[in-house]
Predict the structure of L-aspartate oxidase.
Amino acid sequence: MPSNTESIRPQSWQGIDDIVIIGGGLAGLFCALKLAPRPVTVLAAAPIGFGASSAWAQGGIAAAMSEGDTFDKHLADTVAAGAGTVDEKMARLMISEGPDRIRDLLAYGVPFDRDLEGQLLLSREAAHSERRIVRVKGDRAGKAIMEALIATVRRTPSIRVMQGYVVEELISEGRFVSGVIARPDAGQSKTRVAFPARAVVLCSGGVGHLYQVTTNPTEARGAGVGMAARIGAVIADPEFVQFHPTAIDIGRDPAPLATEALRGDGATLVNTAGHRFMTDLHPDAELAPRDVVARGVFAEVQAGRGAFLDCTKAVGAHFPELFPTVYASCMEAGIDPVTQPIPVAPAVHYHMGGVLVDADGRTSIDGLWAAGEVTSTGVHGANRLASNSLLEAVVFAARIAENIKGMMPEPRLYEWPKSAGESDDLVTLEDSPQLMKLRRLMSANAGVIRTGEGLKTLIREIVALEEERGRTRVRFANMATTAKLIATAAYLREESRGGHYRSDCPEPREAFRHRTFITLKDADRIAAELAG
Ligand SMILES: Cc1cc2nc3c(=O)[nH]c(=O)nc-3n(C[C@H](O)[C@H](O)[C@H](O)COP(=O)(O)OP(=O)(O)OC[C@H]3O[C@@H](n4cnc5c(N)ncnc54)[C@H](O)[C@@H]3O)c2cc1C
């Protein structure tokens, strides 16, 4: 039920089988399109196309579609990257449905790169044994995918998009979700609006902004995991956070990204002295798994030797044409990547953990489905294989649509009237002093390198911040809840695996070779024990 007594305006109930989707990134829009012609309302914190990691994706989507490639090879790479805890059944399902979802995206108008014969051009990324990444103009995949989907959504009369609606709470009756409460005007409005719904699909993206250095947009602040956990949903693997090794280190928040594809194309990592340090750490050097490269870069930065991505030889003069997004970010900061190495640092990039879902995207709460980065399907295990996340978003969003259709078999054709009053303004969500403190604490204690003592301190500090801010401040409560789940699961996992590295237990341990399943109740109990 709503957590405070402030006025809530009910959205006029149309008497239709409404489906509410939270989030206008790839997962949310793809699910809405797959549900057409059923009436769907998409609530998005920012205008669609903005405030979503999907639009920023540079590499592309992984799919086993080339002649030499097979589902088994893609699965083997996914399992190897996942460090022992991938749910193989779920991963196989995702991989085998990948090519069909790529064909769907082509049908929606995504201009994936093709060769002269018109075949899809597939490129290779770190830890992939085959060329299997479909891209658009080098590093423009996310932008091009989102542009095509947004245009299709705009042409689909059964989809209503409410922009600037920040969802704060899921309305629950027992273990059943019956709607959501959102705050319009990019979360600035004094009045909240209730949206009753037969089905709610959570597609609110990642957690990057719970940390100080991240590649994620401001809207990725873990609200979805927090909201779901606060009504009792089971959360899986929250401790597994992926740090991108090569965020461009020019003091920008969020930090721009130097795509993995650059290393795939032969760029090297060097320190100030010009030493190629990854060759000391892993046989695959720059193409080692992300966590290994992130720790390598982190160590150089921590030791004051600096870390740089040198693309001058491998990419050189082709940089502006092959990687226009990265080129623009560098040039804005006065670095010409054609002739100069790019300063880099690790940044929070992707959350492997999230709301536990099954193969149809159902959460542990009736009436609530989830897709995309907010979920934990188990396909990534402890570490995501590059370009598998967009794939996961489309595959499970489509499965959710099928599942919901099965439950509401009679589509009611409906055209939303042109909605008035939705905000097109791009307003950035603000960081409160408490959030800034939370972000600092998370980076210091739940970052690239963690310790049991640091995590204990972090959990106590989060509880103190919650008390200071008051549990009634819903938006902060959602963020603090997600942070607490990450910290608690990281504290309990006394080993190192995938994206989770504990310098006090640096090796994987057989006893921990399993996924984590945790509720907010569990996290609160552990926090109370640590306080006592
Ligand atoms: C820089 C960058 C590059 C990447 N490159 C790749 C790549 O090449 N390949 C790959 O597979 N993956 C890549 N990823 C990861 C991938 O982009 C994401 O995992 C994926 O796009 C997530 O899609 P999503 O729909 O779940 O979330 P998003 O695209 O982040 O969308 C989330 C949506 O929810 C909205 N939202 C959030 N909170 C609320 C709220 N409380 N109320 C209402 N709306 C809310 C947001 O505004 C947004 O509309 C990259 C990520 C980043 C940051």
